Amino acid sequence: MGGPSVAIVGSGFSGLGLAIALRRAGFTDLTVFERADGVGGVWRENTYPGAACDAPSHLYSYSFEPKHDWSRRFAPQPEILGYLRECARKYGVTEHMRFGTEITAAEFDAAAGRWNLRTAGGETCAADVLVSACGQLSRPSVPAIPGLEAFGGTLFHSARWDHGHDLAGRRVAVVGNGASAVQFVPRIAPEAAKLTVFQREPQWVGWKWDRRYPRLRSRLNRRFPVLQRLSRLGVFLWFEALLNPMLISPRGRKVLSAHVRALCRTTRWSVRDKQTRRILTPGYELGCKRVLVSSDYYRSLNLPHVDVVTSPITRVTSDAVVTADGTAHEVDTIIMGTGFRSHDFVAPLRVTGLDGRTLDDAWRDGPRAYLGLTVAGFPNFFMMYGPNTNVGSGSVVHMLESQIAYIVQAIRALRDPEVLYMDVREGVLSAFDDRLQQRLGGTVWNAGGCTSWYLRDGRRNASNWPGSMLAYRRRTRSLDPADYRFVKR
Ligand code: NAP
Question: What EC number(s) has UniProt assigned to this enzyme (predicted)?
Answer without folding.
Answer: 1.14.13.-
